[in-house]
From TrEMBL:
GO terms for cellular component: MHC class II protein complex. This is DMA protein. The chain crosses the membrane at residues 195-219. SMART domains: IGc1. Keywords: Membrane, Transmembrane, Transmembrane helix. One of its GO terms (biological process) is antigen processing and presentation. It is a single-pass type I membrane protein. It comes from Molothrus ater. Residues 89-179 form the Ig-like domain. It is found in: Membrane. InterPro entries: Ig-like_dom, Ig-like_dom_sf, Ig-like_fold, Ig_C1-set, MHC/Immunoglobulin, MHC_II_a/b_N.
Length: 221
């Protein structure tokens, strides 16, 4: 069987969040440590909680202090000598699950990849208006290529044709913005299109049946 990669990545940086710690399996987040609350949080409610007594906040303190010390030393020595590495985020918006007939509420996922450094803000707009209610924001998840990913979710009840935008903002001065869009489908038009296609298929079937009957009569003659 192919090997599996269990990774635990601790990162520190001058920008917020100054500290982040995630545990992943084959690139999928399992748990992450919430430093302000000093607790482990599973990525999804279906996952089991972090085992008690395993990597407690007291045990993580020396590692975080060492990370900050290394960052301070390297920052002073390499400042101005090496260019700062930055990634251009790749943003996509899609429904969390296929829409169900008669369900007006839609759960959308905004997936942001190729993040480096792990510092950006994610916001949502629906029909041009900012939305904060029903929005959840996940942690920065490390990838094997040394970049990070992040997911934000929102539950909305859009009208047909409404444009939902996921806005990703980078930098302290908000100088760079990447936007991805999702347009609410018109279910009424979809039903009309389905009926039109069904009618066209029925008409085509009748024409082919009459044509076959005519060919059969000609063959008898």
């Amino acid at each position: 069987p192919p090997p599996h990669l269990l990774a635990e990545v601790l990162s520190c940086q001058p920008d917020a969040p100054s500290l982040s710690l995630s545990v992943t399996l084959d690139g999928r987040a399992l748990s992450w440590f919430h430093f302000p609350g000093s607790r482990w949080i599973p990525e999804t409610p279906e996952l089991p909680p972090w085992p008690e007594g395993l990597e407690t906040p007291g045990e993580l303190l020396p590692e975080t202090q060492m990370c900050r010390e290394i960052l301070g030393i390297l920052g002073k020595q390499l400042g101005g000598l090496l260019p700062q590495a930055r990634g251009i985020p790749v943003v996509s918006v899609f429904p969390a699950r296929p829409p169900s007939p008669g369900d007006a509420t839609t759960a959308l996922v905004c997936l942001v990849q190729n993040i480096f450094p792990p510092s950006l803000a994610i916001s949502w707009t629906v029909a041009g208006a900012g939305v904060t209610r029903g929005v959840t924001l996940g942690p920065f998840v490390p990838n094997p290529d040394l970049t990070f990913g992040r997911i934000s979710r929102i539950s909305v009840t859009p009208r047909p044709g409404d444009v939902v935008a996921c806005v990703v903002t980078l930098g302290k001065d908000n100088a760079t913005t990447v936007v991805a869009y999702w347009v609410a489908p018109d279910t009424a038009l979809d039903e009309q299109l389905d009926m039109a296609l069904a009618g066209a298929a029925l008409a085509l079937g009748l024409v082919l049946a009459l044509l076959g009957l005519g060919l059969a009569l000609l063959a008898r003659r």
